[in-house]
Amino acid sequence: AKDQGRNTYRFFEAEMTARAMQRLHLETALRGALARNELELLYQPQFELKSGRIFGAEALLRWTHPELGKVSPADFIPIAEEIGLISEIGGWVLEQACLQLNAWERQGFSVKRMAVNVSVQQVERLDLVDEINAILQRTGVAPGRLELEVTESLLMRNVERVVANLNALRELGVTLAIDDFGSGFSSLGYLKRLPISRLKIDKTFIDGVTVDDNDDAIARAIIALGRALGLDVIAEGVETQAQADFLEHEGCHEVQGYLFGRPMPAHALRQLAANGR
Ligand code: C2E
Ligand code: CA
Ligand code: CA
Ligand code: CA
Question: Where is the EAL domain (predicted)?
């Protein structure tokens, strides 16, 4: 039994070493990803139910490594955040997204708004506002067409800095959406302090609407909260017609999800807009 214990321990040790190695490998690979052109953006349509039109797109980052293959952003974004790489990558994402708006425009396709995910580390940076301003100047994109998606985890950090930066961005005309709304642990007080335009109902609630009464109630409550505070509300992760019907009936007219389109290359989104879904 004693031997077995030791073997088990050795097994775990080997397992941990393998994991640490893999993680280190991923880190090293990620540090060079931008320079090696391994990152790209996909765009998921944001759909308006009333008009049946695409009014926006969310930029979603993809990384394809020559040996590791496709690595999910859910895996590499946290690493990029930890090793201090997210601001560099995030700056690239912001610029690419704005350039894409221009490219579409040249092709006669106008998307009103581009939503870009930004990490807390980016929002905390002193120079965030200058950086975004510079990108908007360089690309000529009107600030009102750029929406930043942030999560509630923002509030667990340097709140003063975060509030100052977000207010400055709001002054520029950039809008702000709270991503994964309802899934965080923060109190709702921040809704008064931050210059928010939009709430994005977390996918976990949308998954359950029309099958779980609790999720119906939560989604309804978020829609009512948005209405009361004068905020727009968008639902993410809409996969079924029943979910879309529920949302429309409850007064949430902006939706995003596989039912309307997966994250796709820029040209595919333009085609989708031209052909209808
Ligand atoms: P998120 O911002 O909450 O993005 C929504 C995720 O749900 C995306 O996963 C999207 O592909 C997926 N999704 C959209 N509609 C549906 C649906 O109907 N059903 C299902 N099952 N999934 C759906 P993705 O692209 O893997 O991104 C994962 C997360 O990685 C994002 O979550 C976001 O937090 C982060 N991320 C992606 N791109 C960036 C980026 O450029 N910067 C930062 N900081 N984070 C990013
Ligand atoms: Ca998002
Ligand atoms: Ca989300
Ligand atoms: Ca999410």
Answer: 23-277
